Amino acid sequence: MTxxxxxxxxxxxxxxxxxxxxxxxxxxxxxxxxxxxxxGLDTERSGTGKRLRPLLLTLLYESLAGDMTPSLPAAAALxxxxxxxxxxxxxxxxxxxxxxRPTVWSVWGVPQAINAGDGMYAASRLAVHRLMARxxxxxxxxxxxxxxxxxxxxxxxxxxxxxxxxxRTDVTAERxxxxxxxxxxxxxxxxxxxxxxxxxxxxxxxxxxxxxGADFGQAFQAHDDLLGIWGTTDRTGKVAxxxxxxxxxxxxxxxxxxxxxxxxxATLVExxxxxxxxxxxxxxxxxDILDDIKVRELLEREIGIHRERALHELRSIxxxxxxxxxxxxxxxxxxAAATGSVTEAAASG
Length: 349
Known about the structure:
By secondary structure, the protein is mainly α. Helix content is 70%, strand content 1%. The protein has one domain (3-348): Farnesyl Diphosphate Synthase, CATH 1.10.600. The protein contains 18 helices and 2 strands. A hairpin with a 2-residue loop joins strand 1 (97-98) and strand 2 (101-102). The chain is globular, with a radius of gyration of 20 Å. The relative contact order is 0.11.
């Protein structure tokens, strides 16, 4: 994915986010500064973060309505909601870095980070109301607001399950995918369905885009799980193999527990038996086991299945798209980059 092809859209999304977080009172500048820092919109460094979910919504809206401008408040709301969860997630996981920078809690402390995350959630709600100033009917704004609220509850449910999985060795792939459907898929589905909600009353279109977003979310999370074990720090911005060290039951580990022979599975249980963080020798041995039973190949196959399902749903909307060629082409490029179906060099671009 070449960032240049998305630059004008990314700039418009970031401008809308800045407008939502604008604050004139000097005493409160540090409060909003924490949010801008986390988003990569502080003066020190700009433009970090993929903005996947807002790009997803704006490109879909543009393909359906011809102009993305009315959708920008919805895009800002999505990104603020997503990043509120990330600030809290970093605290819960005690992650010291995100996107190659220290996390908010590690710079300002846990209490201020919790409050900044809460503030970002409230700001996402205010962003939704800005849709009416862009001409979106109140009924559709209300429906979109409910969509985001439902997604937020599902994300919290998914986070509960994800944390609970860390202390268990009986997590099945089916249970894990159910957790991902909540924690990751819910907001992808809301982003895709939300584009239809704010520009159309077509229930079939809304449902199709919700399915598209859910499959995209599954493919994205599976690829993210892959990077969490086989990715480099330069690529991910996180500590290499940190998911294993924290005893997180990501999909590669769950597949390994399911597919390993009894003796190998017993070894995995033993290696995971120590409290987090696991020692480096355990981490290395666990990854060796994953490599031995070819978990990465299984994972890549699953990513491909969900990617193709998402693309199938996306291509089905071409008949109702008003300016299908450019935004839909960019969406396919976005999906390819976010799920690893392009070369490492292209994805880094």
